[in-house]
Task: structure prediction
Amino acid sequence: MPMIYLDNAATTLQKPPEVTAAVRRALETCGGAGRGGHAAAQRAAEVLFDCREAAAQLFDMSGPERVILTCNATHALNIAIKSLAKPGKTVLISGYEHNAVVRPLRSLAEAGVKTVSLPTPLFDQEAAVKRFEEAMDDNVCLVVCIHVSNVFGFVLPVERIAELCRARGVPMIVDASQSAGLLPVNGDLYPYWCLPGHKSLYGPQGTGLLLIPPGGELEPLMEGGTGGDSRKPHMPEYLPDRLEAGTHNAPGAAGLAAGIRFVIKNGMDQPSPLTRQAVEELSAIRGVRMYYGSCCHKGPVSFTVEGKDSETVASLLSDRGIAVRGGLHCAPLAHETAGTDATGTSRAAFSHANTARDAAALVRAVREIADRALA
Result:
């Protein structure tokens, strides 16, 4: 039985064929970018620049040099957080942050960085803006906010929060792990944007991007070779080299560029009709609770089944050939905020490769599980 893959909020599995082809070409032709003047090294440099250009085009950036290639969104978040959080100061975060934000900040607590979480009701954007506005005092050095909750699909009003930060001269970091490829992201706006390549941009695993706003400055997370300025004992001052130590993942960058261009060609938000279908039909099942807000939802569809914990539901769906994710989704803070920390949720997310039949199959399987649980 072929698997229906609906765990795209973690990683898209079915990549466009042009992504696979680009990775293969790079594996066969790319040397080390900046490591020599021969054709293979030059080809690698071209691949990296092409990826930056594609990202700059999709994310409305005026300069590709401010596109930093990372291993994933977690890598990008660590660079930005550990550069901008200051000892003795306060960092404000939403109540829906992933561990990719929570854990780096927790590691800075011994250095005197205080983290304040601002929980708000699900799908209440006005409450989110108000909480950040009320908490913004003179000791705040940084704001970090997820764009779309990886658990609930709640779209947080990051543009409005960014305006609050800009007015007070406070830097902001946005975790765009679930929004990049589904919602517009403007890399020339105030925040630092951190995003993975392997989700709705359809790139390979092990790829990500950090988008630096005009005038933005960050300190390196790692130091090492950059292919140039080799006599200098410190990292270069200019981007992107300052934040990119070591040999690049050229095959990953090639695949990510192809994935980004797939999104540019075909448009963002392809999965939305399937998401709406699943939400509407799952909501009608007795014993199923949906977590959905019609005004500000995008991406993941989270639900619980009465009488079953979320990981059991995910396992039962797997037995029926449907891949979803159950549990806390590396975001216990989000579950604490929403009151689902005891049970977690089961989460489905669609990609360009899914069909209406996949959504219908999910609904049938959940209905069967819920009926048996309530029998």
